[in-house]
Amino acid sequence: MTAYDAIVLAGGAAERLGGADKPGVLVGGRSLLDRVLAACAGAGTTVVVGGRRPTGRPVTWTREVPAGGGPLAALGAGVRHTTAEHVLVLSADLPFLGASTVGALLAAAGEDSREGALCTDPGGRDQPLVAVYRAEPLRRELALVATEHGSLAGLPLRLLTAELDLARVEAGPLDSFDCDTWEDIATARARIREHGTVLDEWITAVKNELGIDLDVDTGLLLDLARDAAHGVARPAAPLTTFLVGYAAAKASSGDAPEAVADAVAEAARKAAALALRWEEEAGATKSEADPQ
Q1: Residue 213, CB half-sphere, CA atoms under 13 Å: how many?
Q2: Boundaries of each DUF6457 domain copy (predicted)?
Q3: Which one, 119, 150, 182, 241, has least CB within 10 Å?
């Protein structure tokens, strides 16, 4: 993947939220800012433009001048702290932005003749705060706009994007979903609890809370829990999965995350086989007691 730095714009007055600290609003137990930071975890340097607040990983903090000067001024402040050839620019209110969309933007921006790439939402509207820009033309255009207008404060982003040759990447309906109102927040909170997404959202939140950077086969663990509950007893499900995690941690202490994931898978396979043996044994005992 193309090396990049990231700038996350986390300022603004959030007037439609009654002045609430929008980047700090929780969706699925994680702040909006942390959800965005997770999508750009591959950045070499991540700069957050806005007031300091707790984050799930280290970032570089800066502020636009004057404070509240708008997204163009914030972008100008953030880019001073970046060194990579490509700069990912994101707003801090994108609860469903995924790493795959970041990768698509980086790939499109990496084309030889392009000066960057931005997302377009399902309505075809450009999203300049879900974008990747080449650093050199970005700095050039920011300097030209500042010279022409005296400063970047209060200016619209289109003054920048109109002068750059940008590729367009179609975003999914959720990737560009931003939270401007409490209704948007309520929609996001309801969306993560839907049947098809709630487990992934919950596991991600738990790993974030516990400081675990590990991808495991959740399907394998769910199958194990089912087998233990069905073949042994219902309380066996959570206890068995706990013991699998403990065994994996003990067997792979100090190893890379990939080795830990392999250890989880191996322990889960052993425990699942044991649960099936218990079930078979119970069935055999019943048939022996009632040989009809």
Answers
A1: 7
A2: 195-282
A3: 150
